[in-house]
Give the backbone structure.
Amino acid sequence: MNFNKGNTFIISIIFIAIILTFFIFIALIFVGETNSILYNIKLDMYSINKSAIIAVNKGITSRERFSYDKKAYKEYFTSMLKKNYNLDDKLNNSDGLVQNVEVKEYEIIKKGAKDNFTHDITADSTIHSVIKVKIKPIFFDDLLRDVFTFVIHEDVALNEMIS
């Protein structure tokens, strides 16, 4: 079979297109998996904060005795992050998919105060939590190590837990 320069060029373009399609496919899987992990962490933050409210206020039946103890909520929050993601006391796990968590902000924002993250006015007293999460890249770990660090914000209204 005799190839001329035009056929070689077309075959080269097809070969490059196949390689690009493969890399785009891998990148889409990678991004989808990362988004799924981040969404689950955000849901977990919400659930942990709800659980913290219940755990700290166990047995309290009146609004007057309801606890706004930030330290107690944060301790519960941190302990559950450690448990759920197999983190050590410094919130690291070099072997896990979630390699590091840093609690950037953990505050109780009173009703009508400004949220520092969203700059919105809060409608209720709120547990405001912001964490920085480092996720282990599935591929190209050495190349993408610093790229897969994300900041996640979650607010949970304190007052909706009591009636």
Summary: The longest strand covers residues 98-109. Residues 5-161 form one domain. The chain has one domain: 5-161. The chain is about 45% helix and 20% strand.
